[in-house]
């Protein structure tokens, strides 16, 4: 396992960690100034400015874009809406290419409003990924399927385990083109009894495209916005990183923390300082 | 699949559904008066009165005890605490026998305070169940391992999928004695991509000891106390029951709803009326 001490160049900050409180250009500067090697920006902040300018700034600061967040949800109640979702994602893939992103993060979406058809939503997701895989190849940007914690199955992602993501990868990309894989996020996956086996399988098939860290707080008070800083929760992050890296992952370690009542209220530079310290001590 | 219309005798109410606002004897009367065939009481309400009297009242009303809730958490930071947890559960098994419970519901516990050793906690759980299985046989009360939703992995249960529960059953009770199995709860399991396969495996091995229903609300606002009434959420409950019953489950259908801000504020008889209606229409 790589030693992260003094190696913030191996570490990336997902801009959500700072709460999207400032213009993206300011956030990019802060992350670069703090010494991190990577950044993962969000579409809503990129799309309201000029993607070429964002790409230029990131490139000038020599930051790796560890992922572009994130896909428009795929499952829809109508074919027209599904097609619109696909088109949205294709446009985002073009921006991901402009940014030089290592992957396009696919949070695939939950059940369409009013639906109880989980199997149908999962089928739509597979169909949509198949279609987007063509575009991903065209633009040279891999799709990283991010299994989300099962508590988001209804409204955010019907892909909920790494095994499930890998099954889709194997079905749609048996040749392991490098354009389809998974994002392993400690928050979403830490509980999974099959995680060790799934990481091994993913590694063998070169499917791990991103690795995200934060922590699961024992007293989690909100389903979405109460993630913990690394070291403040129950996840054995260094054991997880060891496993991911032993199975071939050599990309950056990305911090992604949604924390409305805590970290999003703190000074951004302080947050980055704590991220840096925890990455080097508990991850 | 059995038709529940006019068959409330096939349905049971977990007393938590009424919010534990009244003395247990009053709750028992309400549930029987409403026509339900079963009840699942909790230890904290049984243990503060007299278990023999509770058993007598339940028997006089001809209610089936579909489960006795629930185990003391097993994983502990010290051996002494682990042993105390085992002893607690043994005492509860004696009460479960007095009540004539169809099973003792095992919510196995999360990580010991301050621990990040998920694998160790899971090993403790297996050890504890092995020990309790002896007692279960003695008292004639099966242990129903209840996989809890992964959002409870830190603090309530390190068994989080039906597959995982079944692996423990197969390891500890390969002869399928009937004294070790699982409780399938729609709320905890609905999202699981492997659920269909796990239910089939459980059925083949006669492991399904209880079936619990409520619903997952799309806009869940609390991790513990915001479960939905059947029909108000996203779970295809009739498809799930069909699957469970096709695989051999012939016990009662138990309603278990934790709902601090909604159902626990309503009149208990109204809650029971809605449960009865939904059981007969959407389950």
The number of distinct helices of chain A, counting runs of at least 4 residues, comes to: 10
Question: What Rg of chain A do the Cα atoms give?
Answer: 18 Å
- Tell me the series of helices and strands of chain A, N- to C-terminal: EHEHHEEHEHEHEHHEHEH
CATH structural architecture of chain A: Alpha-Beta Barrel
Secondary structure: helix percent of chain A? 40-55%
> Could you tell me the number of beta strands of chain A?
9
Reported by name, the CATH topology of chain A is TIM Barrel
- Integer tally of domains of chain A: 1
Q: Can you tell me the CATH superfamily of chain A?
A: Divalent-metal-dependent TIM barrel enzymes
Q: Biggest sheet of chain A: strands side by side, in what order?
A: 3-2-1-9-8-7-6-5-4
Oligomer: homodimer
Shape label of chain A: globular
CATH class of chain A: Alpha Beta
Brief overview:
Chains A, B: GO terms for molecular function: isomerase activity. With 283 residues, the first copy, chain A, is of the alpha/beta class.
Write up this protein.
- The first copy, chain A, contains ten helices and nine strands.
- In chain A, helix 4 (79-99) runs parallel beside helix 5 (118-139).
- In chain A, strands 3-2-1-9-8-7-6-5-4 form a nine-stranded parallel beta sheet.
- By secondary structure, chain A is of the alpha/beta class.
- Chain A has one domain: Divalent-metal-dependent TIM barrel enzymes (TIM Barrel, Alpha-Beta Barrel), CATH 3.20.20.
- The model of chain A has no long low-confidence stretch (mean pLDDT 98).
- Chain A binds chain B through residues 110-111, 113, 115-118, 122, 149-151, 153-155, 158, 160-161, 163-164, 190-194, 216-221, 223, 233-236, and chain B through 110-111, 113, 115-118, 122, 149-151, 153-155, 160-161, 163-164, 190-194, 216-221, 223, 233-236.
- Chains A, B: Residues 28-269 form the Xylose isomerase-like TIM barrel domain.
- Chains A, B: One of its GO terms (molecular function) is isomerase activity.
């Amino acid at each position: 396992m790589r030693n992260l001490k003094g190696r913030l160049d191996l570490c990336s900050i997902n801009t959500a960690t700072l709460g999207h409180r400032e213009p993206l250009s300011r956030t990019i500067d802060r992350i670069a100034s703090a010494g991190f090697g990577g950044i993962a920006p969000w579409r809503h902040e990129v799309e309201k400015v000029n993607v070429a300018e964002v790409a230029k700034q990131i490139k000038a600061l020599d930051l790796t874009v560890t992922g572009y967040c994130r896909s428009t949800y795929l499952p829809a109640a109508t074919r027209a809406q599904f097609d619109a979702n696909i088109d949205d994602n294709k446009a985002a893939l073009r921006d991901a290419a402009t940014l030089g992103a290592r992957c396009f993060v696919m949070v695939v979406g939950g059940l369409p409003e009013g639906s109880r058809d989980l199997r149908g939503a999962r089928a739509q997701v597979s169909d949509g990924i198949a279609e987007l895989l063509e575009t991903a190849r065209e633009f040279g940007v891999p799709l990283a399927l991010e299994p989300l914690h099962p508590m988001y199955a209804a409204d955010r992602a019907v892909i909920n385990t790494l095994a499930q993501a890998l099954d889709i990868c194997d079905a749609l990309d048996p040749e392991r083109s490098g354009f389809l894989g998974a994002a392993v996020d400690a928050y979403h996956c830490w509980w999974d009894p099959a995680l060790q086996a799934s990481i091994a399988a993913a590694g063998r098939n070169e499917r791990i495209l991103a690795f995200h860290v934060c922590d699961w707080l024992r007293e989690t008070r909100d389903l979405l916005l109460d993630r913990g800083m690394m070291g403040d929760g129950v996840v054995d992050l260094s054991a997880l990183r060891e496993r991911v890296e032993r199975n071939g992952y050599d990309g950056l370690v990305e911090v992604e923390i949604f924390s409305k009542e805590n970290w999003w209220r703190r000074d951004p530079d302080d947050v980055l300082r704590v991220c840096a310290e925890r990455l080097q001590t508990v991850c």
